[in-house]
Model the fold of this input.
Amino acid sequence: QTTAAAAIGVRTPQEVRERFLRKQALGHDAERLEGALALLSQVAQVRGEPAVALRQVRSMVKSPAALAELVRLEETLGIMAHYGVKGQVSLDLGLGRGIAYYTGVVFEVRHPSWAGVSLGGGGRYDGLVQALGGAQPTPSRGVACTGERFVGLLAKAGRERRWKRREDIVL
Done:
């Protein structure tokens, strides 16, 4: 025979304490999540010249892991500058390529004479091989370009050549 107290779920003091601590932790997790989303929203609005953008983000973030990623991004920008890409780079920390398999930096290739038009893009996608059946994550990155847009850009610049066959165009 059950008592009314047993039917409504009497807990031991230890069970009450553990449940209270779990609920309290969930409350803190919600606060941390809200804080993280607010920070992410601020960081996603940063765009422009790399040194200025990185300085802005560095003033926002405190996490050692986030600061380490900024150092890695600075190293990448340094390598690009070494190869002569320096003056042609703009950071947009809110850029998203719209494909879920990206796991790191993503980028787009644009030309100033075609405002708002992407000529191509790519990024890092370490989990793609595993998602397609591979045994483990594989460090990967890639880029895809839209051939028609490059040909259109060349035509706009007056550099279009009359191609004899479609196969003559190689990118």
